[in-house]
Amino acid sequence: MDRYDVVILGSGQAAKPLALALAEAGRRTALVERAWIGGTCVNTGCTPTKTMVASARVAWLARRAADYGVRTSDVSIDMAQVRERTRRIVREFRESSQAALAAQPTIDLVFGAARFVGPKTIEVALTRGGVRRFSGDVIIIDTGARTRAPALAGLDRVPWLDHVAMLELGVLPDHLLVLGGGYIGLEFAQMFRRFGSRVTVVQRHAQLLPREDEDVATALRDILTAEGVEILLSTEARQVVPESGGLRLVCDTAAGARALTGSHLLVAAGRTPNTDALNLAATGVAVDARGHVQVDEWLETTTPGIFAAGDVKGGPAFTHISYDDHRILRANLLHGEHASTRGRLVPYVVFTDPELARVGLSEGEARRQGRNFRVARIAMNRVARALEMDEAHGFIKVVIDRDSDQILGATILGVEAGELMSAIEVAMMGQLPSAALRDGVFAHPTLAESLNTVMSA
Q1: 444 is an active site residue
Q2: Labelling 157: which of 20, 34, 138, 148 has CA 20 to 30 A away?
């Protein structure tokens, strides 16, 4: 049995940079990957979906060309070409990551399915056949998460799709039914509506994106509805029935039962951690009711020397959070620091068009915490650059502490919202008062100069 300084299970956005840092420090490291290097983000998440979102936006702009005084011929979609472009970019990212890992002599890259057979002993059923067993002084679990299949009657009788299968479609759905009104469901709903599909979103909550303020969710719903996406709120899917050429989804609504007929069904109603096959019972590592690995603020599990990073531990399931997990583990394992997750900002972007971006507290969260705050808000139609681009949907909303003038959070629904939010996040990191952005000199005409306006509101 081989022994390593560190064994990493999974190769997501925490694992790869951490393995490289360990290698540079001379630590003998085994990295075990069941399928593809890069984890969800590179292979089935951020990279492919945002590549397809870009294709859908080009189609949308082409259809809107007349709004800009540009005449075009009819727009058609070649889904096979869209898929091939996506595959190419994913392949380039994946191969680049694998090459970087393989180039390090102190990294042993192992492909196969891992399970614990002791507290720090791992057995791997190798992809190419055979079994390897090894142990590590330190173990890091970064096995990610996958789509959770809901308890929906008849689901096992229809060829339903998750976001991974959607990426491989070579044909355009005639009528796509989307189960779930979270960020995955909404990105795919708008994307395929722009490609030309009829799309219906079934959301069991009273609003889209339940964690957002109601005005934000309502504004995004109105934008999607204006593009032709049908959105059913407070609607519970009860049964799915196969039909010739498609399926029928039976739902309960406030107005009574309703049956939806579609050609394809996308299930985007939650994720489940990839821990069920790890045999964590052999380690003493605790998990919650959903199977997420439990960690403290230093990312250590209930078993000393075993850590977890990324989506497998629950909490915010974002690539940049996984990457920050790597920073914490690198600082503590290699440099003896005491870095932790305490107080870290959690920015995120929903890549609808326009984007929805948020960092820090929402208005509702600030109110529930009893903060003494004010809300600075402007509509995007007050932003010159947005008007010039004919992209003036949405608004900017900033939550500001009345006593200190510190920015507590910002929510932006608008063109390039992620970039604007990031500028505000930098101000928050530097503890700048809102007055510093109000009085800052930003180039004209840029979206950034909207920070002058909103902080004055």
Answers
A1: yes
A2: 34
